[in-house]
Amino acid sequence: MINDDRLCTGCSDVGQSRREFLGKFGMGLGGIALGGLMQGSGYAAVPSGAPTGVLGNPHFAPKAKRVIYMFQSGGPSQLDLFDYKPILNKMNGEELPDSVRQGQRLTGMSANQASLPLAGSIFDFKQHGESGAWISDLLPHTAKVADDLCFVKSMYTEAINHDPATTFFQTGSQISGRPCIGSWLSYGLGSDNENLPNFVVMMTKNKGGQPLYSRLWGSGFLASEHQGIQFRSGADPVLYLNNPGGVSRESRRDLLNRLSELHAAKLERTGDLELNARIAQYEMAFRMQTSVPEVTDLSDEPESVFEAYGPDAKNPGSYAANCLMARRLVERGVKFVQLYHRGWDQHGGLPGGIRTQCAETDQASAALISDLKQRGMLEDTLVVWGGEFGRTNYSQGTLTASDYGRDHHPRCFTMWMAGGGIKPGISYGTTDEFGYNLSENGVHVHDFHATMMHCLGIHHEQLTYKFRGRRFRLTDLAGNVVNDILA
Hints:
This protein has helices at residues 15-24, 29-37, 86-90, 98-101, 108-111, 140-144, 162-171, 181-189, 249-270, 274-296, 303-309, 319-331, 350-374, 445-455; strands at 66-72, 125-128, 133-136, 149-156, 199-203, 229-230, 336-341, 381-386, 390-395, 406-409, 413-418, 426-428, 430-431, 438-440, 443-444, 465-467, 470-472. Helix 2 runs antiparallel to helix 9 (249-270) and helix 9 packs antiparallel against helix 10 (274-296). With 487 residues, it is of the alpha/beta class.
């Protein structure tokens, strides 16, 4: 196991032995902390290509070096986007057969309905590309890059409500408090750029929908330096990054030098390894004062790029602008970029709501794929698109010829992945003819995480962290790599 008691930097039960070991060599934790954290500030050099994560190096050669995860919060309707089910149109308005439901539980929102009428999609589906992927007319831009995508149509989860379902996808547990995906990758693989965060989070501005909490990009029981850093629209992309009035950069540098010495002295006395993270965050904030303005200044992007991402690309905080920013971040060595776009929770008025959602996301999502590919980056960048669950094949609320809603459906739904070791131009897994149950090749949340980590060169069972007597990992006690979708 990679993270045994001798190497587990976050295990409180081994701090004393490590301190004694380092002390015998005349180094001391304080000296190591201060020396290591002054790198990049003119005080120490970092060897080129030196590993910075707990793994040292990946378990095996990775296909992906970085991840962009476009999380569509609320649960996009796979039946109106990707999973074409003509029988639902033929039986539109008829009751969901008991033989299909099989007594499976419903949410509290559907359980009180007198009937569960099947609802066919009002949108047209066509096959696209050489792969023949079924995509509705809501996603014309995604259809153009269909042969670059892998559609996983057999995703499933146990969570039936938003908060536990979203928490599950982000952390591998339905119960909050665990480290999120980006934090695990930061902990295991370290950073490729000392001047930018290893893990960046962006949310589409001015979007209503299910709440998203900072714990979704939190580091849990890992050191706080591994938590996601939220970039925002506006004059200050990262809060509290700029110096207060009257404080020069030189003064801040002097302050951080003295503060680091004090923290290092306390670390020598107490062995509190969280002090390492605190010093690291101070130093990162100092370096980001230069790097963040550079990466968020889009003035060097040609007009053709803005046109590709869509009319909102020049609007900071929009989904399109965030997709473009994600490309700029991974170009500069950020390992994990998490985008959140809310508003897919369409219990009623689905046709109007999903049109709006697709208009906001379709062009930019497809442009990101094309942009990465044109720059030669798609082959080692893993891109993910999907929500926390899917939607039901029956209508929640009143069904009319032009309007319907869909409830939460965790038993089968669609996500897509691209680049970074994923086989392009395929659809994997199937659902039954009603789009209600899995037919073959189900992919669980833990399988999804295991496959993602595999693309990054990590054996998901071997990146662990001992906390309160138990070894934790992103995939908990389950998860299998989906080899059939690997390139």
